[in-house]
Design a protein that fits this description.
288 residues; alpha/beta; 8-stranded mixed sheet; 10 helices; 14% strand; disordered C terminus
């Protein structure tokens, strides 16, 4: 089985609609794909309705968190989307995304960049607006060559010249809330130093003690020594290790299924989850 547990659609900052994403996942030869848009479950219904035969959908979200001034992304899988406390926190984060993006536009204008809110809003469309949309505007204007180049200290990286904060969860609260909603938590790209500051191994250990289920080891922003380091740490802490593309359509160069999760790990994730079940396409398997 080929399993990709981290993708984004136009419901947040990807360029494929949820229906297009599951079609692309099937075309890429995947058996299982997780839709994990930022702080929203808005794409799940469309993705489920469009599932091709043989492809299974794992519903999820990538939750925006912060601890000690460091941004943390928490992948949450198979939670009950109607659980009120977690739903309220996701709404608070989403509501803060527009004023945050507008603040970044103002900072860029003060730096002499001719970006406008109208441009960023057009790029975001109906999605949950975020830094990648602002970054795409910088690419359109020729300020940077790629979206990744915008996530640097001169521009949009944490603490960068045009960075602006937003409401974010404490990762310990995120683990607690997702667990209460019957879900499973995996720390996304935890040692991706090219994105900026990362959490310490001590924080990861404390999150493991608090109920964190796993860490995303195989990711485009982790080199091989970092992946090996994460696998070793996961072994010490009793955590699962996943692999995922973090696919954003044309916004990033990574391909669907470029990094994948072991079927046994996927099976363990589905066994731990009680808030929701994987959605099989016509004829698709329910579990690994």
């Amino acid at each position: 089985m080929r399993i990709d547990l981290h993708t984004h659609s136009t419901a947040s900052d990807g360029t494929d609609t949820p229906a297009e994403l599951v079609a692309e996942a099937a075309a890429a030869g995947l058996d299982v794909v997780a839709l994990t848009d930022h702080d929203t479950v808005g794409g799940h219904a469309e993705a489920a309705a469009a599932l091709p035969e043989g492809l299974t959908l794992v519903t999820g979200a990538e939750l925006s968190c912060r601890i000690d001034g460091v941004g943390v992304h928490m992948l949450a899988y198979l939670f009950d989307p109607s659980e009120p406390e977690l739903a309220r926190e996701r709404e608070l984060v989403r509501d803060d995304r527009v004023p945050r993006a507008q603040a970044m536009v103002r900072k860029l204008q003060e730096l002499g960049v001719p970006v406008t809110w109208e441009q960023v809003a057009r790029i975001a469309g109906n999605g949950s607006v975020g830094r990648p949309h602002v970054a795409t505007a910088l690419v359109e204007l020729g300020v940077v060559a790629t979206v990744s180049d915008a996530f640097t200290p001169p521009w949009l990286a944490d603490g960068g010249r045009a960075y602006a904060g937003k409401h974010e969860l404490d990762p310990f609260d995120a683990v607690r809330l997702v667990k209460a909603a019957g879900g499973v938590t995996v720390l996304a790209h935890p040692l991706a130093v090219k994105r900026g500051r990362v959490v310490s191994e001590d924080v990861i250990a404390r999150l493991a003690d608090a109920g964190l289920d796993g860490v995303e080891a195989d990711h485009m922003d982790h080199d091989e020594p970092t992946r090996a380091r994460l696998r070793g740490l996961a072994g010490e802490l009793g955590l699962l290790t996943t692999g995922s593309s973090d696919y954003h359509g044309t916004r990033k160069t990574v391909r669907l299924g470029e990094y994948t999760t072991d079927p046994e790990i996927y099976g363990e994730i589905t066994r731990r989850a009680t808030g929701a079940f994987p959605v099989p396409g016509a004829g698709g398997p329910l579990h690994a």
